[in-house]
Amino acid sequence: QPQLVESGGGLVQPGGSLRLSCLVSGFSLDYYSIGWFRQAPGKEREGVSCITSTNGATKYADSVKGRFTVSREKAKNTVYLQMNSLKPEDTAVYYCAADPLTVEDMCTMKLSRHDYWGRGIQVTVSS
Question: Count of alpha carbons within 13 Å of 50, Cβ hemisphere only?
Answer without folding.
Answer: 27
